[in-house]
Every structure is written in C-alpha cells, then in structure tokens.
C-alpha cells in the first residue's frame, strides 16, 4: 500500500522535474529570436535626484508601441520622480506608477536596511507577479535590488510565463556619477543583468580588463588584477560613451 | 554675456560654498562679467546671517540684485526651480549629478564646486571627468573667484545628444525587435 503511494509521489516529482527541464530548454533555445512583433511589458525603476534625471533621458525616446505597458517603480514619498514620470508620459493609458516602500534611506545602517529591503521585497514580488515584466530597466538606486531579485526568482519559479527563465531581461545602466568604481547596487546586480552598461572607460577597463581606445588613443589602460569571473562576463558588460 | 547667475546646493549641506560667495570680490567678479541678478538656492545649508538682502551695491554704485530661497518645487509652475535654471546664464553648483545633467540639458554654462569635506566623494570624480572632457568647469572652492574672472576664455563643449537613440537600439536588439 505504502509502496504504491511512494511510487505515485515519486512519479509526480519526476513529472515536475522533467516538465521544468523541458521548459528551461525551450526557453533557452527560444531567447534572442529576432523579428518580434508583440509589445514588451516593461518596468522602469526610478530613484532619487540624479538617478531619475538620467533615467528620464534614457527612456523618454522609448517607442511606446513596442514597450507597453510601462510600469514606473518609485520609492514612496518621492514627489520629484512622480512629477518626472507624468512629464514623459502625458497621461498615456498604458503607463502606470508603482509605489514601493523605500529599501534604504540615506545614512540608514546596514543592519536595519536588511529588514526594510525585505519589506520592499514583499511588495516587489506582488507587483512582479501581477505585471510580469519581460524587461526591467534600472540605473542604480537601492530600489533596483528588490525589484530585480524578486523578478528573477519569479522567472525561475514560473518558467511557463512569458517572462519565465531566459525571457526576463534586466538592463542595468551604471550611473554617470560612477566614474571609477561600481555602486553597491551595481555590484549586487552585475550577476543578474542581461546587459550591464558602463559610461566611463576607466570603470569598464577596471571591471573587464579590456582596454579602450577613442579616436585611436588609449583612454584607459589594463588593470592586471581583474578577476577571472568578471572577464567571462565581458559579453554582457558593455561600454557606451554616447548614452546620454 | 552673463545676465543671471544661479548658485545651487540642491538638498545638500554645503555651508562653505555659501560662506565663500558672501564676499565682495565674488560680487565684483560677477558684475565684471555682466551679471545683474544673482539667485541662491541654499537648501539644507546655512545662509550666513550677514548675507546681503535683495541687492548688493558695489563701490562704483552698480547694483547686483539678489534673491535667496531654501527650495522651490517644480510642480508649482510659476515659481519652479527649473524656471530659475532656464533664465540663468551661469550655474554655480555642488557636484550633484542631477544638477549637472539638468544644466547641460538646458545648455547652460556650469561651474561645479565639489564639496571637499565629504568623505566618500565619488561626485567630485564626476566633476573631474566631465571637466576633463571640457563640458563643465570644475573649480576648487578657493579658486572660485579666479575661475569666474577667467570664464570668458573658456569654451564649453556640448555633451548631451539631441534625440539620442543609442539606448533604445540596445533595448530593441536584446528584445528581438528589428532596429
């Protein structure tokens, strides 16, 4: 009797594992297909001050028919970001504002920020589940961390959704203000990003070990201590000096 | 020609900058380059008590109009801070990346004075890198008056591109759209 039960449980688990594996394989081979027609559900993470100013410049020219709906994530009490969002969207019906609790206030201690980040994480799970973003654009405010990690976990848990494993793209643009070193958010999101864009040559060379020439002149020289693990990410890490 | 100058510290505490501009030689240098109006947004910094109210009269009788305020918010359209940026010809600012970008977007001349008292100061890195490209002037606090006196010899290079599609092209490529 119990043997039959065990066999049933075992085959159920087996079916789930095989199902997942097939989905993963399907997603893996289906990514990077060209000629897409259907719109992309997009999530744009706003931050504070300079981060938002940069983000506005990045996304104000987005083709609205291709990137729809657009959900703007804002930390609560950030009136400046709300104002900027309404400026670029002009009450477009497919654009929405999502408010999540602030994950880390300026000068907040590292220890208490663990709990506030977890709190923000709960909200992010709910919104990511609801909106199923296929594309997340972020540029460094602390809010990016719970947004991206929760979306990534959901894409692994539910690979059958349109933003399932392999179909969720995180685009990270390191802030123009980071000239020589990555921000904490940048370091934490480096492993998750499909494209990790840097705007200063020195920083790019420091992370990838690849030297950069502009107009035939070397503008940043090789850093011999680049870790092997980031070298293998060179495909995903790109340098752009004309982003803004 | 500079008609209006805006000094801004954003939301930061930068008392040293306000102390430095509360000097007759600073006002003199402004008037010398043609400035008639000076606007000061002092945010969370302390404006010196003896800072001239409404106007400053030079020894030769020329008048420099002065406006000071803590904050102005953009959503109140008539009194927006952005409006003040628009009507200014020169912006003297702390090294905030938001202010720098906004000024460049409005094609303003900008002198950035990094706050040297900040510990982890990656913002002055931005000011240095941008001034190396010749798009802004980065000036130490003590050199501000000298910088003003030499302003006319400096040519500001453009940095931002109009209708820049570089980023959209990256997105289109990764999402599988035809570019």
From TrEMBL, chain A:
It holds the Pfam family Alg14. GO terms for cellular component: nuclear membrane; UDP-N-acetylglucosamine transferase complex. The chain crosses the membrane at residues 6-25, 110-129, 135-157. GO terms for molecular function: N-acetylglucosaminyldiphosphodolichol N-acetylglucosaminyltransferase activity. One of its GO terms (biological process) is dolichol-linked oligosaccharide biosynthetic process. Keywords: Endoplasmic reticulum, Membrane, Transmembrane, Transmembrane helix. InterPro entries: Oligosacch_biosynth_Alg14 (IPR013969). It is found in: Endoplasmic reticulum membrane; Nucleus membrane. It is a single-pass membrane protein. Involved in protein N-glycosylation. Essential for the second step of the dolichol-linked oligosaccharide pathway. Anchors the catalytic subunit ALG13 to the ER. Belongs to the ALG14 family. Heterodimer with ALG13 to form a functional enzyme. This is UDP-N-acetylglucosamine transferase subunit ALG14. It comes from Piromyces finnis.
UniProtKB/TrEMBL annotation, chain B:
Its EC number is 2.4.1.141. It is an enzyme of class 2 (transferase). Heterodimer with ALG14 to form a functional enzyme. Belongs to the glycosyltransferase 28 family. The gene is ALG13. This is UDP-N-acetylglucosamine transferase subunit ALG13. InterPro entries: Alg13-like, Glyco_trans_28_C. It holds the Pfam family Glyco_tran_28_C. It is found in: Endoplasmic reticulum. One of its GO terms (biological process) is dolichol-linked oligosaccharide biosynthetic process. It comes from Piromyces finnis. It catalyses: an N-acetyl-alpha-D-glucosaminyl-diphospho-di-trans,poly-cis-dolichol + UDP-N-acetyl-alpha-D-glucosamine = an N,N'-diacetylchitobiosyl-diphospho-di-trans,poly-cis-dolichol + UDP + H(+). The keyword Transferase applies. Residues 5-164 form the Glycosyl transferase family 28 C-terminal domain. The lineage of its organism: Eukaryota, Fungi, Fungi incertae sedis, Chytridiomycota, Chytridiomycota incertae sedis.
């Amino acid at each position: 009797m119990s043997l039959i039960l065990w066999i049933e449980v075992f085959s159920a688990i087996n079916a789930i594992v095989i199902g997942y594996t097939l989905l993963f394989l399907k997603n893996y081979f289906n990514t990077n297909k060209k000629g897409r027609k259907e719109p992309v559900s997009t999530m744009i993470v706003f931050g504070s001050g300079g981060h938002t100013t940069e983000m506005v410049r990045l996304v104000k020219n987005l083709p609205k028919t291709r990137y729809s709906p657009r959900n703007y994530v804002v930390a609560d009490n950030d009136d400046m970001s709300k104002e900027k969002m309404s400026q670029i969207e002009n009450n477009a019906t497919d654009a929405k504002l999502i408010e999540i609790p602030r994950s880390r206030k300026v000068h907040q201690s590292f220890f208490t920020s663990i709990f506030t980040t977890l709190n923000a994480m709960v909200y992010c799970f709910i919104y990511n589940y609801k909106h199923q973003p296929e594309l997340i654009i972020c540029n460094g405010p602390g809010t990016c961390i719970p947004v991206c990690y929760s979306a990534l976990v959901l894409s692994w848990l539910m690979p059958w959704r349109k933003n399932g494993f392999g179909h969720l793209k995180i685009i990270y643009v390191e802030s123009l203000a980071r000239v020589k070193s990555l921000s904490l958010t940048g370091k934490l999101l480096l492993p998750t990003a499909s494209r990790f864009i840097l705007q200063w040559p020195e920083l790019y060379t420091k992370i990838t070990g690849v030297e950069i020439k502009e107009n035939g002149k070397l503008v940043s020289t090789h850093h011999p201590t680049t870790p092997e693990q980031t070298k293998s990410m060179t495909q995903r890490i790109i340098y752009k000096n004309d982003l803004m | 020609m500079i008609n209006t100058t805006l000094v801004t510290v954003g939301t930061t505490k930068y008392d040293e900058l306000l102390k430095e501009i509360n000097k007759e030689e600073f006002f003199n240098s402004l008037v010398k380059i043609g400035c008639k109006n000076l606007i000061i947004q002092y945010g969370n910094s302390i404006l010196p008590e003896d800072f001239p109210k409404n106007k400053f009269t030079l020894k030769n009788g020329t008048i420099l109009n002065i406006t000071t305020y803590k904050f102005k918010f953009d959503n109140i359209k008539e009194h927006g801070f952005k409006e003040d940026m628009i009507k200014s010809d020169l912006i003297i600012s702390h090294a905030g990346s938001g202010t720098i970008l906004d000024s460049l977007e409005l094609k303003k001349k900008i002198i950035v004075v990094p706050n040297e008292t900040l510990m982890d100061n990656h913002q002055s890195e931005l000011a240095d890198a941008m001034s190396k490209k010749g798009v802004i002037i980065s000036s130490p606090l003590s050199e501000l008056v000298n910088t003003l006196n030499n302003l006319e010899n400096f040519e500001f290079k453009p940095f931002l591109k109009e209708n820049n599609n570089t980023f959209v092209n990256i997105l289109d490529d990764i999402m599988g759209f035809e570019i």
